[in-house]
Amino acid sequence: MQTPQIDSARIAETSHGLERSEIERREKVFTVSDLAVHYGGMPAIEEVTLDVHRNTVTAFIGPSGCGKSTFIRCFNRMNDLIPAAKVSGTVLYHGADLYGRDVDPVEVRRRIGMVFQKPNPFPKSIYDNVAFGPRVLSMKGSLDERVEGALRHAALWEEVKDRLKDSALGLSGGQQQRLCIARCLAVEPDVILMDEPASALDPISTTRIEDLMHGLKREYTIVIVTHNMQQAARVADMTAFFSVVVAEDGSARRGVLVEYDTTAKIFTTPSDKRTEDYVTGRFG
Amino acid sequence: MADEGTPRSAQLAVAGARSATRDALTASSHQDRVTGAVFFALLLLGLGTALLGLVTILIWSFVEGAPRLDAELITNGPSTLSPETAGFRTAILGSIYVILGVIVLIVPLGVGAAIYLEEYADPERWWNRVIELNIQNLAGVPSIVYGILGLAFIVRGPLDLGFVVAAASLTVALLVLPTVIIASREAIRAVPRSIREGALALGATEWQTTSRQVLPIAVPGILTGVILAVARAIGEAAPLLLVGAVTFATFNPSLFEGGYSTLPVLIYNYASRPQEEFRVLAAAGVIVMLVLLLAMNSFAVWLRNRYEQNW
Amino acid sequence: MRIGLQDELDALEAGFQETGEIVLRSIRGVVDALRMQDVELCDEVIAFDDEVDDRYLAIEKQVEMVLARQTPVATDLRLVLALLHNALHLERIGDQCVTIAKLTKLSSHLNTKQAVMESLVDMGERCGEMVKVSLTAFAERDVQQARELHQLDELVDRANRQVFQEVLGYVHDAEALEWGMRQITAARCFERIGDNAVDIGEQTAFLVTGEFAEFTDASH
After folding, report:
1. How high is the ipTM of this complex?
2. Which domain holds residue B220?
3. Does B219 touch chain A (CB under 8 A)?
4. Residue A163 within a domain
5. pTM for the complete prediction?
6. Do B197 and A110 touch (CB under 8 A)?
7. What count of CB pairs under 8 Å joins A to C?
8. Which domain CATH number covers A39?
9. Residue in chain B lying closest to A122 (CA)
10. Contact A63, A278 (CB under 8 A)
11. Torsion region of C47: left, alpha or beta (phi above 0 gives left; psi -120 to 50 gives alpha)
12. What distance in Å separates the CA atoms of residue A44 and residue A89, rounded to the nearest whole number?
């Protein structure tokens, strides 16, 4: 009899995603209240309020220009690097104000890592790429073990274990992105932010990364921005849909949060018509 | 190519289409072709003129100076009395000392300034914009002006070093510093933003990012800038005349004492003498300088090619 | 690859097979209740059907989720569609068992006739067998086994006709006629269970070949 072997623990969390009640029982990692980001006075995104819970995958979807990339960069204070950007509202990280006066952005970024849209390995060896984080942060313990652990976690170890000294630039696109994930994991973050991590990759690499997220979310909290809503449907437990609001005179465009709910709900019975229009592809 | 079964009208249509396409794809009108040829000729003319000057110098100096290409050129000091055995030794040493001093000064100052301007300065602030503007200007200031500056403030004035090698190094360093800053800035700017973002996102500080990621990648570009600046500095004569490159130093130079001379200055000296033998000497000196410059520039090009990365 | 999708499909199929086991239990229960004229067992079977209905709804919901979230294609899509259809067939089989149980209760006070009883029990056991085979064929993706189902169905149909003929003979005995009429309905229910089992077999063929074709059967 060919009944497939079932790992019931894994099934419990994957079959129709986590239930809302289960998600909300988990600790809140981020609490965002009335957040807005302005570039040189013009609002890019406004009135965002939502919570991100531990060990979940939360996806931000929406049309281009809705500010989802701007929003995710608020979580690790990467917007600080843009002089014209101004963040208002509050972001609490485990209850503490992320933008508090004596908060050091460098410490924030150690705990909240980021993987970018286009893989950006350093022009160094594979080993040195992964070791960079632990080195600059003076992490104790065996560097070799950290590097191997991170590469295993990123499902890359088997492919590179015999050529750790080779240049990282010689890897394929999908491998480079997994290397960037390994680099991020090496500093033992709490949260991993991913800004369209697979949009520059081929479908097989994309599936690999999605499968990776399945495993990673058991230990980390993941927030992902994606313009591919099917990807959000596949990987995310909670999905936030952002849309663009155009000013009356047609001049200014800003992003707003339209709906935030379990992925199951967003893709079967969304509450807001704008959400329905977007996920069914009738948007615009 | 047409089948027997294809009707005559279809065959004609195919032939017509074929010739029309061929016409459309063939080269442009006669007018355009002539214009293209004329333009190409003008380009070659410009290039030829530029090369002509260089070739003339090369040929003249080799023809003139060939008789004096011997070991004594380098080992002997200058002499007014016996041009046959006079050499450039003191001047060569003087040039080397001055250049070493220049390198020691421009690398930290130039690279440091470039790092500040690229990584730390907020371009919105007015003083940074002023600095930005003025570095470009400084690169274009005539070198004699730097000589006057050196004379007034370094040789005399506040620093009061006197006519010494150190003063010359300082003066020339100021002269070529803008070049180094500009080249270093370009090299640093060429490092992709994504590298910086990647490093910062891992929790590296700005300084760690700059020192461990940006600078190592920018080093080839910076080095090229430094070498080009040095090549220019070796050939400077005018400002050095003002800060005391005594045209006739018969003794070996030292850093903070006494007089000194440099290669271009001594060439100038020999060239302005009436005797034929001195002219030959001058030409020989020119050959030495050209060889040196060629070596440095080639090294810069090789260095740049070796480390060029494709992003 | 696509761990999430595979897990969801595995869970869906496992849920379906479990529901199948439960429905088999219902069939056995109702056949026993019929043979032993056990009213309490009939009540149990009737109450038990709630479980079958709940499981059916759960599978339906799960299918909706898989389609919305994973957008399966090709074999995966056919599997999901087949599971949806088959879950419905199982639910119908459950309903047939309830009907048979209710009929048994209604006629429990009447005397039974051995010939018809034997035919009914025979039908019950055969269609129980058919459901089991259909579930196995589905799990093993065995189209041949699935096709053989309609031969078994012929036997069930034959027994159904026998019951009908037999009861026609009770026209002179009022009590026997009343009992017999009810048993005709019960036989019809068993026959429907058999048809549903064949339908499950057809879904197996659809899943494997990609084409939906009804197995040729006179009774359809």
Report:
1. 0.89
2. 72-307
3. no
4. no
5. 0.81
6. no
7. 73
8. 3.40.50.300
9. B195
10. yes
11. alpha
12. 14
Confidence of residue A3 (pLDDT cuts 50, 70, 90): very low
Give the model's confidence band at A259: pLDDT under 50 very low, under 70 low, under 90 confident, else very high: very high
Range of the domain at A245: 8-104+112-120+190-279
Q: How far apart are CA C138 and CA B158, in angstroms?
A: 98
Residue A79 DSSP symbol: G
DSSP string, A88-138: EEEEEETTEETT-TT--HHHHHHHEEEE-SS----SSBHHHHHHHHHHHTT
CB B215 within 8 A of CB B291: no
Element (H, E) at C207: helix C174-209
* Chain B contact set for A121 (CB, 8 A): 198
**A-proximal residues of C, 19-58, CB under 8 Å:** none
Give the model's pLDDT for residue A6.
46
Place of tokens 């960069």: A73
Residues in chain C: 220
The verdict on B236 and B186 lying in the same domain is yes
- Mutation for C interface: A5, A16, A237, most C CBs within 10 A: A16
Beta partners for residue A223, in sequence order:
A58, A193
What average pLDDT score do residues B120-132 get?
80
- Contact (Cβ atoms closer than 8 angstroms) between residue C103 and residue C185: yes
Q: Which of B225, B280, B267 is nearest to B95 (CA)?
A: B267
Q: What is the amino acid identity at position A77?
A: R
Beta strand pairing status for A238-246 and A253-262? antiparallel
Give domain status of residue A138, yes or no.
Answer: no
Statement: residue A11 has pLDDT above 60: no
β-strand pairing of A42-53 with A28-39:
antiparallel
Cβ A264–C8 below 8 Å, yes or no? Answer: no
Q: Does residue B269 form part of some domain? A: yes
In a domain, B3, yes or no: no
C12 contacts on A by Cβ (under 8 Å) = 15
Measure the CA–CA gap between B110 and B227, rounded to whole angstroms.
13
Cα C125 from Cα C32, distance rounded (Å): 10
Residue to test with chain A: of B128, B129, B202, most A Cβ within 10 A: B202
**Angstroms from C141 CA to nearest CA on chain A:** 9
| B203 vs A83, A122, A133: nearest CB | A133
pLDDT digits over A101-143, tens only? Answer: 999 999 999 999 999 999 999 999 999 999 999 999 999 999 9
Dihedral sign from CA coordinates of B297, B301, B302, B304: positive
C3-209 CATH fold = Methane Monooxygenase Hydroxylase; Chain G, domain 1 (1.20.58)
Give A-chain residues touching B199 at CB under 8 angstroms: 122, 132, 136
Q: Where are the alpha helices (DSSP H) in A217-272?
A: 229-235, 263-268
Name residues whose C-beta falls within 8 Å of residue C113's C-beta, 6 or more positions apart in sequence. C166, C170, C176, C179, C180
